Amino acid sequence: MPSDADGMTLRGDRAVPDVALTGGSGPVRPSRPLDATLGHGFEGSGTETSRYRGDSAGASNVGGMSEVHPELAELRNSIDNMDAALIHLLAERFKITQRVGVLKATQGLPPADPEREKEQVARLRRLAEASHLDPEFAEKFISFIVAEVVRHHADIAEAHQRIDPSV
User: Fold this and answer.
1) FRET partner for 122 with CA separation of 20 to 30 A, picked from 8, 59, 114, 142?
2) How far apart are CA 118 and CA 103, in angstroms?
């Protein structure tokens, strides 16, 4: 599959993040920091093992100083990078759903759309299965997100109702 410099791989007519394509073949090494402000270790940054000094899980004690096995530190840094990517993606998702909530409120639509939610759950379960992820976990994950979105939409609708009771 062709890959470009932005960390995306083309699958048919879709671009998918390379992090989703690791398949357990090794740690993810982003080409650029996803969250440099947190000081996460990235390949070549010099922080691959130093971030986890003092952590006793998987560490050896040499001369009174505990060091994490380099591979464990590298894997943990890969996980940290993916966690940062997830948070950034969720933040972007919530920015869009806030706009949806405003649109729903101004159009007098209900905060929840059970049919859309059902379709989303089914779509993400299929995606999870194709990605070798537990579909039950995927369903719980999206259900948690959707519940939070619906809560935000209800808050937006309530605020809009106070401003414009005609809707």
Assistant:
1) 8
2) 21
In this prediction the pTM is 0.60
d(Cα 22, Cα 28) in Å, to the nearest integer? 7
What is the mean pLDDT, run by run of 10 residues, along the chain of 167 residues? 45 45 38 42 40 50 72 97 98 98 96 97 98 97 97 96 84
How far apart are alpha carbons 167 and 109 in whole angstroms? Answer: 9
Structural domains of the chain, ranges and CATH numbers in brackets = 1-90 (no CATH), 108-167 (1.20.59.10)
Q: What are phi and psi of 57, to 5 degrees?
A: -70, 115
Question: Cβ–Cβ contacts within 10 Å for residue 73, how many?
Answer: 22
